[in-house]
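new request in #modeling-help
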Amino acid sequence: MRRREFLTAGSACLILAADTARAEPSRTWRVALVTSGNGAVIREMIRAALASMGYDEDKNLIVDFREANGRYAVLPELVAELIALRPDVIIAEATPAIAAAQKATSGIPIVMAPATDPIGSGFVKSFTHPGGNITGVANMFGDLTAKTLDILRLVFPNAKKIGVLISDNPTHPALLDVAKRAAAATGIAAEGFTARNPEDIEATFVQMKDANCEVVYVLADPPRPVLPQIALKFALPTIFQVNSYVSLGGLMSYGPNIPSFFTMAAQYVDRILKGAKPADLPVERPTTFEFKINLHTAKALGLTIPEQVLLMADQVIE
Amino acid sequence: MTISLHQDTPPPPALTPVPAASALGQEKAAAGGKSRSRLFIKYVALFVAVVGVALLSNGIFEVIFYYREHRAALIRIQHEQAVAAAAKIGQFIKEIESQLGWTTQLPWSAGSIEQRRFDALRLLRQVPAITELAQLDSNGKERLRVSRLAMNVIDSGLDFSKDPKFTEAMANKVYYGPVYFRRESEPYMTLAVTGTRKEAGVSIAEVNLKLIWDVVSQIKVGKHGRAYVVDSKGRLIAHPDISLVLRNTDMSRLPQVQAAQANGGLSDDIKGALNIQGQEVLTASAPIAPLRWTMFVELPVQEAYASLYAALQRLVIVLLAASIFAVLAGIFLARRMVGPIQALRAGAERIGGGDFSQRISIKTGDELERLADQFNDMGARLQESYADLEAKVEGRTKELARRQSELRVTFDNMGDGVVMFDGELRLVSWNRNLQQILDIPDTFFATSRTYQDYIAHLVQSGDFGDVDLNTELRNFTANAERQSTIERTRPDGRVLEVRHNPVPAGGFVLIYRDITERKRAEEEIRAARDAAEKALADLRTAQDRLIQTEKLASLGQLTAGIAHEIKNPLNFVNNFSSVSNELIDELTDMLKSAAIDNGTRREIDELTQMLKANLEKVVQHGKRADSIVKNMLLHSREGSGEHRPADINAIVEESLNLAYHGARAERPGFNITLKRDLDPSAGLVDIFPQEITRVLLNLISNGFYAATKRKQGEADGFEPTLSASTKTLGDKVAIRIRDNGTGIPKEVREKIFNPFFTTKPAGEGTGLGLSMSHDIVVKQHGGKIEVATEPGVFTEFIITLPRKLAAQSDTTGGRS
């Protein structure tokens, strides 16, 4: 008995290093992903990013995925379906999806992946303290709208008129305005053309061709993979904010690295699942921007790209 | 020691040495057991304490020093890490600085602006941290601005010549602007560099410090440690958790940050400091020199001290093991030590208990063994002397027993009852005679052993009559040691003489002797003597009474004679004085006519008047004397006379007068108030007037006597009063004679009508008055005589007489 007492006393004296590594709760997390455009690639990127953080879809993760494929009108319905599945977090790709998710819930955390103008769209109160159930990544396309014209001028120093391709994306009117003013400042006329749905793109290109647009500036929007090919068909050089188009045949792009958005979104998901409050997670912005150019497309369009421009490019596709 | 002399009754209490001794032995044994375990525990505890204290103090010292050294080492390592990290950050900035450097190689006059623009764009490509680059000429005018976000500007001409970016850079070659936050979120810093030549102007870069994240997130501090950078205002610039940076966290409230900033970037080791997440951390810091930033390296205390805790754990295990060993060793040693002592103690106990043959066997080869040998020697010697002693004791005991039995025989055959008590009032001894004399059963001695019990028994058996047990107990206990001899009578009438003799050594003896027979003889003698004496006294009294009666009888005759003889001269006196009176009247008439001068006439008148007055007095007193004499004659007349109807009121009146004068004659100072309340309708009653007068005289003179006697005992103001009243009751008449005298005591009242009973001093009363009165009223007249009295207040005799005398002709004449 004495020995036992002594042991008890001794162990009471001991302050053992607490093992902080707690076992992950064995519950299964439910992550909803809604994309404004085509989402297959995004879904894969999200899955990969979450998997690298220990979320395994065979074990502790269910990803419910809905894509609008550029038909923003169906988004509310998709979001409602997702919410019915009671997700822990909603990842919303691009402003239309975020807006739909914001309307549908104020309780479930929403990760923007990414938003163009989170404050202007009313998603967050500030970058530092979002303050609501929404946080995530801002893509800075708004800041870059004018900058893209710089890139455009590198290749087309004598361009007189450009067409700006927009859609129903709620951010577009503002961006179009910025683009028009920036273009005007450098002596270029810019005109906006709206393609509401992917099917409308071709018709829009007809309009731009008719309007004598020399270059088409595609404002940031969820990806519509058919776009570069249509542009080629109309022999119009295209410059994009979303740089994934370049590898699909777009001529040039200047903007942040798109896959990194989803990696970051996955990080937000991770932190939210671990208990962080979206209201306290600052909105992150990309710090690096890539200038991409597709020489293959340039050749197809019969363009010669100056050496200096090629030197500046972060990625040249040949 | 007390020895009981009584063997066939339960033994007295004191003689119980054997059980007492055995009880003592048991106690000793119990005490021995306790002391043994105490000794054992003491040894073990001492051993454990010594070992434990040594181990514990050693352990504690080790822990303390280990803790200090460990902490110091940790801090040192961390500090080194902080210095290294600070160097990396410095390197990061220096690199940007040197990259900027080559944009300021060329003077503005040389080279086209386009070339510079491409250079700038190239720089942006190469240095991702630079978000914007502006180039000023030597006059402070902006010539070129290239940005990652905004459109490039050429020759904006903005004037920076007063801006510190330009002035400071021109003065110091390099300028580090303050940290600022774009959109309140991303930390930026302006870095301005001037070339070696002044004409080359200034390159201003806006550096996105978020990219330091790459640096700090690569600095590994332990497992959970972190490195972070804080600017001179205490704001967080770089932290592995980028969201903390983006949140524009203010670190200046942390004590370690405050300490470091107060101390030029080097902070002392601050104990118990918490980091921004609220964890307790060990923090070291190093300044990032040109920027006035501070590099912090922190390590959670839990992790930092993990090895310390492990050491503590080891120490506790060692301590535990050592303690267990100490306990076991202590038990072993204590057994070795206590075992022989235990054997010694047990041996000593048995020797003490009388087992002298006991030998203690201890083979430890040390002092304990020698002690055991000495014990054995002592035991052997004790055994020898004990045997010797036992033989002597046996002889003496036999002698004592013989003496005791002799004494017992004597004791039991004594005539007296004897009981002995010791100094504590305990019953020591007694003999058979005591039990016989006091009827004490054997059972009493079986249970009762004290004087109190003894007295209680006697009280309960009624030996002292109806008394309170407790009071008696107190009295007897208080007087237990006092010498006394008393006699008392038992309830069965036997008389005992009790002698109470203290014993010099304490205690006392009570000796009872039955003296009933002696007492009875004495009593009988005394009774006989008393009877004789009483008879003699009665005889004398009777004699005196007889003499008195005789005297009175002869006095009556004498009085009658004298009265008769006095009556004749008295008649002469009366008659002649009245005649003389008449003669003086005649003389006066005659003198009126005689010729006498006025003077002589006046003198003659005076003289005749004086003579007349004198004669009237003579007549008056003569008549009084005549009345007295008549009464005397009346009273002393022989025989009862005839009964006749007589006026009862007159008789009462006459009796009052007679008695009053009699009393006055007897005692000149006699005075009393007489009251009369005579019923006029009382009328005539058929009586023997003389007899009733005698009765009344008797009662009245008794009343006078009592009232006078009371006056003698009372203060002034007492008025002796006697009242007489009559009242008609139809065919009866009641006469009441009431005085306010001394009254008659109850015990006397029964006897007042007895002949010869008197309360008056011898010679004054005959004791026959009331007896005679009773006879006259009751027997002669068929009436009643009653007495109502209250001692000290009054006495009233009530005589009730029938108006018609019943035919009791056989009544004797009177009594003398």
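bot summary: The longest strand of chain A covers residues 29-35.
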